[in-house]
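Page 37, continued from 36.
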């Protein structure tokens, strides 16, 4: 009987040894599985083996520098006459510049003076005005009809000035200007806004051509 008990105890010890040893043996012969599982297999957080890309140098946004004290010249905007009244105009030039059209006509302001106009006839009202002398040079391919030339003065807010036609100093362009010839005409136009020295002067010369525009300030 004791012999049977001894054999039973030996068998139980062998079974316990097998239960513990076999998993250990399997764990020992599978190192690659342990490596692949990494820390995550033991409750840790998995990390990537790829090194993070190096951050390049920071680039700053481009800046725009503005000169202190630089002030743009105020000019009539697109919502202001003459173009608001449907008049086609060429790019504006300064009062002391020469504007040349694509057809070859050159126009310039020979002189511009601020004066106090005197009423000499019906519809005229005395007040601040500008006396303008316009010079034209015809380098087109045909004579120019000067009777079609018009000179107008606009305030910065788009209001047109009234013409003085009875003043003795007014000698508007008339007749025909031959190819290669020059002509000058004098005009007296009231200032629609006497409080401002800024004016826009248009010179029209043909119905199918844009008007020449001069813009700038007139000395008081």
């Amino acid at each position: 009987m004791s012999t049977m008990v001894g054999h039973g105890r030996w068998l139980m010890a062998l079974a316990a040894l097998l239960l513990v040893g076999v998993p250990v043996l399997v764990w020992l012969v599978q190192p690659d599985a342990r490596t692949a599982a990494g820390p995550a297999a033991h409750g840790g957080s998995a990390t990537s083996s790829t090194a993070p890309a190096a951050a390049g140098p920071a680039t700053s946004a481009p800046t725009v520098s503005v000169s202190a004290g630089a002030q743009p010249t105020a000019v009539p905007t697109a919502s202001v006459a003459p173009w608001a009244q449907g008049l086609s105009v060429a790019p504006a030039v300064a009062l002391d510049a020469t504007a040349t059209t694509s057809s070859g006509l050159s126009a310039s302001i020979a002189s511009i003076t601020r004066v106090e106009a005197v009423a000499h006839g019906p519809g005229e009202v005395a007040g601040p005005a500008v006396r303008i002398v316009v010079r034209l040079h015809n380098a087109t391919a045909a004579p120019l009809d000067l009777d079609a030339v018009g000179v107008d003065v606009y305030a910065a807010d788009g209001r047109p000035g009234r013409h003085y036609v009875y003043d003795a100093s007014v000698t508007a362009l008339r007749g025909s200007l031959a190819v290669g010839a020059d002509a000058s005409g004098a005009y007296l136009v009231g200032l629609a806004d006497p409080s401002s020295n800024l004016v826009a002067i248009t010179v029209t010369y043909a119905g199918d051509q844009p008007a020449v525009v001069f813009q700038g300030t007139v000395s008081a």
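DSSP finds two helices and ten strands in the chain. Flag for discussion at group meeting. The domain at 83-217 is CATH 2.60.40.1240 (Immunoglobulin-like).
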